[in-house]
Amino acid sequence: MKTAMTPRGQARMVLAMLGVMWTALPCATASAQRDRDGDPERARRLGGVPREVALEVTAVWNDPATRRVRGDFALAPTDTVRGDLAVLGGRARLAGVVTGQVVVLNGDAALVDGARIERSLTIIGGAFDSPERPNVGGEIRVWSAAYRYHEVGDTLVADLDFFSRWSSWMRDDERSSGRTRSDLLVTTAHTYNRVEGLPIYVGPRVRARSGDTRVRAEVFGIFRTGDALTWKRENLGHRVLFEVRQGNSAGVAIGGRLFDEVDAVEKWQLTDTEVGLNAFLFTRDYRDYWQRHGGQGYVSLFAGRGSEVKASYGEERWRSRRARNVLSIVNDKVPWRVNPLAEDGVMKLLTVSATFDTRNSPKDPRAGWYLRGEYERGDGDLARYISLDPVPALGNDVVYSRALLDLRRYNRLGPNGSLNMRAVLGGWVSGDPLPAQRRFSVSGIDALPGFDFRRQLSDTDVGTCATGDEQAYAALGRPALCDRMALLQIEWKGDFRVNLFGDDDDLGDRRWVFGRVKADGAWVVFANSGRGWLVGPRDSDNLVYPKGGVPDIKSWRTDLGGGFDFGNFGVYVAQAVSESGLSPNVYMRLSRRF
Predict the structure, then answer these.
(1) What residues have CB less than 8 Å from 233, skipping those under 6 apart?
(2) Distance from chain centroid for Cα 354
(3) 471: phi then psi, degrees, rounded to nearest 5
(4) Do 380 and 346 meet the contact criterion of CB atoms below 8 Å apart?
(5) Which of 172, 197, 326, 463 is the most exposed place for a label (fewest CB within 10 A)?
(6) Average pLDDT over residues 317-324
């Protein structure tokens, strides 16, 4: 006998179908892009890059004899490159002679009159501009699809396997370099969570480029699947963005945006992918959320890869969001953790941030520095306040400032090892107490994996700054309550390789492979130590410290651990050593620790 499917069952089916489409397609778009040249030999190939081509260009880049260039490259009419040439992440303008083949990855290529390439030309993730009859001895191949890769040491590894594609999810490919491109985009906002379900962006996006000037415009509506696929106000939102960027490797960007979005508290811990999968699969959401509705303008100065200084100012309305009975695969009958209350009101925000990155590779760093800092000043009226002791209640008029600093150092120890260190400092700087959604904690598998997520271990908890009864704290949703926090991390890593059945190619395709036992990765030994605290007159419970005070290192929580890092995922075990009686935690990450 047939039975009618319940609304929750219908929602589960729709989400499952979205998940299948998500994994299979990197992006669902309707693109309008003109190819000015109708020559079939130079026509842009549609679809994904074939596996053999990705391996071929990877081998060219990794060949020590290849001349490798990151960023823009110009070859003068009087110059000659003897051998192969590979350009990554930039525009190649060739007016001279290349005696080998040319590979351009995630960038455009242009040949001027008199240029000559004696072998083939391959472009992935870009466009080709040339005279009517380009002087290329071999085949000309152009794919608009981006070249997806990660770096291991000084070599590139093409992302071809299941785990690489899964970990990428639906990344918005900013490396697309067509002169003018318009898309009708269907993608996800940030990640699956207990407040929104799956937030979906739908709308047009236009990107135009003229020389070193780039313009980007987006108008997206947001639909949140929630606990049922219903069209109501709390399931709807929007994001509108317009930006003009001048300069290629360095320059200035000016833009503005309007938004009605759900934002996360403490986004510095874990990645969106990890948070979303934990929520969808296991009914565990490691973030808290609140609503932001307003507008913002910004200006930024950028230079090199990943280095930027940005200032923004805007006005927005804040309000709380409730946790909803969204779908999950495992433990679907277990209630979600309460989403903690946020202060409601209208705030004017001035934010200044800076990023400085000298790492050899953002995905697999072995050497260099990474620094991310942010200062925020808020001024406005907040109608709701938190009365949980010992957090002071906020009145209507609130003026505060806070800062967050993330500093990392990567040190290469020979060809196969590295010693990496990280320090994260954040908290109140001046003014009124921080609103609930701008507070901190030091807890969870990203910060202190040897300790359970926001578990209150005593009447005065140094991980969350909670006091009193643990059940009362849990009923509030286990919010982050600290004015300030500090975290120190160190890890020692070394490469290893497992291959029981030999290589199936020698083209640099180092990966996990189904049907054989093969893996490349790194063993990891690590230590973490940190805690949070409140600012005020010193108390006897070692939870409140003066403005210029820092808790004694003996009061910090500390754990030790180790595991195996395979790049796109890792398996680890961590044991708390500053607290007795706690069992070790075994966990998996879908990214590197830091």
Answers:
(1) none
(2) 16
(3) -70, -40
(4) yes
(5) 172
(6) 94
- Spatial separation of the C-alpha atoms in residues 564 and 573, rounded to whole Å: 10
CB 157 within 8 Å of CB 187: no
Instruction: Tell me the pLDDT band of 4, cut-offs 50, 70 and 90.
Output: very low
Tokens of 160: 């071809």
Rounded to whole angstroms, the Cα distance separating 211 from 479 reads: 49
Structure tokens at 243: 């930006």
- What type of residue sits at position 268? W
3-state helix, strand, coil in the chain (%, to 5): 10, 45, 45
Cβ atoms within 10 Å of 340's Cβ, excluding its own:
22
Half-sphere exposure at residue 101, Cβ-oriented, CA atoms within 13 angstroms: 16
Least confident of 227-241, 450-464, 492-506: 492-506
Backbone dihedral angles phi then psi of residue 239, each to the nearest 5 degrees: -150, 125
CA torsion, points 464, 467, 468, 473, in degrees to nearest 10? -40
- CA dist 118 to 44, 48, 86, 93, 137, Å? 21, 27, 14, 16, 5
Tokens at 403, concatenated: 């800062």
Residues in a beta bridge with 248: none
User: In the predicted model, is pLDDT for residue 173 greater than 70?
Assistant: no
Handedness of CA 148, 151, 152, 156 (dihedral sign): positive
pLDDT tens digits along 545-568: 999 899 999 999 999 999 999 877
Is 481:391 a contact under the CB 8 Å cutoff?
A: yes
- Cα separation of 527 and 2, whole Å? 57
pTM of the shown model: 0.72
User: Residue 185 has what pLDDT?
Assistant: 84
Q: Is the dihedral of CA 531, 537, 541, 542 positive or negative?
A: positive
Are 299 and 313 in contact, with CB atoms under 8 Å apart? no
Strand-strand pairing, 102-105 and 121-124: parallel
pLDDT value, residue 248: 79
Coil, helix or strand at residue 268: coil
Choose among 255, 401, 233, 384: nearest CA to 314: 255
Cβ(291)–Cβ(320) under 8 Å? yes
Query: Cα–Cα distance between 317 and 307 in angstroms, integer?
Result: 30
Burial letters 224-256, b for 16+ CB under 10 A, else e = bbbbbbeeeeebebebbbebebeebeeeebebe
Q: Any idea which residue has 């709701």 for tokens?
A: 384
- The CA dihedral of 11, 15, 20, 25, to the nearest 10 degrees, is 130
Q: Of 288, 287, 255, 294, nearest to 273 (Cα)? A: 287
Cα–Cα distances in angstroms (integers) from residue 157 to residues 92, 103, 432, 552, in the given order: 22, 15, 49, 44
**SS3 sequence of 376-398:** EEEEEEECCCCCCCCCCCCCCEE
- Tokens at 504, concatenated: 């199936």
DSSP E strands: which ranges in 59-115? 67-70, 73-75, 80-81, 85-88, 92-94, 97-98, 102-105, 109-111
What phi and psi, each to the nearest 5 degrees, are found at residue 76?
-70, 160
Strand (E) or helix (H) holding 52: helix 51-62
Q: Which amino acid is at 485?
A: M
Pairing of β 585-589 and β 570-576: antiparallel
Please name the residue that has the structure tokens 């960023």. 71
Residue labelled with tokens 């918005």: 172
